[in-house]
Write the structure tokens for this entry.
Amino acid sequence: SAVISQKPSRDICQRGTSLTIQCQVDSQVTMMFWYRQQPGQSLTLIATANQGSEATYESGFVIDKFPISRPNLTFSTLTVSNMSPEDSSIYLCSVEDDVRASSRYFGAGTRLSVL
Amino acid sequence: GENVEQHPSTLSVQEGDSAVIKCTYSDSASNYFPWYKQELGKRPQLIIDIRSNVGEKKDQRIAVTLNKTAKHFSLHITETQPEDSAVYFCAASNKRLTGGGNKLTFGTGTQLKVEL
């Protein structure tokens, strides 16, 4: 399976600021995904990032709030903009295995706290 | 869109007993059903998956069954051990027609506790 490095692992941020989370994969993958997981809750898909095209956002998530970059087949970033305490959560990147289609693997996550 | 329901939300078993977690899905077009194990503070780990052309799959102490007609699938863990204690998530994949990629919809999770 792909090895996924995500950073930062955690951060404490002030209200109104922005944080960019990076996701690096050790192999080229077509699809990358960003999820949010509230403490004790399930995983909610924020957006799908395909290299060379605009990210596709799920209902309830917008590009102005969660801009995503996907400059190449091994890297993506998610920015959480103009943060409020409601954005406190764990953000995880995920990749789809191009060989075993559909198999999904996750990064270790970024634990974000907004004061 | 796809809706995945998962039961029970918590499950406590004695070491050595079996544990069964059940999920139902709503979209008959879903064709991929993975299970993830998430230990406290860790990333979700894919432990087993099944595709819609297979009714059952087994990997050592873990097995998954799929009933496409009833639209439900289950995770079976035999001979449970304390290290099996974790939150388990089921998911169903709904292939997008546009935008690329398979959208995975997750269940709400089951907290499994294996007691000595």
Remarks:
- The first strand of chain B starts at residue 4 and ends at 7.
- The interface with chain A takes residues 32, 34, 42-46, 49, 51, 89, 91, 93, 99-109 of chain B (CB under 8 Å).
- The radius of gyration of chain B is 14 Å.
- Residues 36 and 77 of chain B are 13 Å apart (CA to CA).
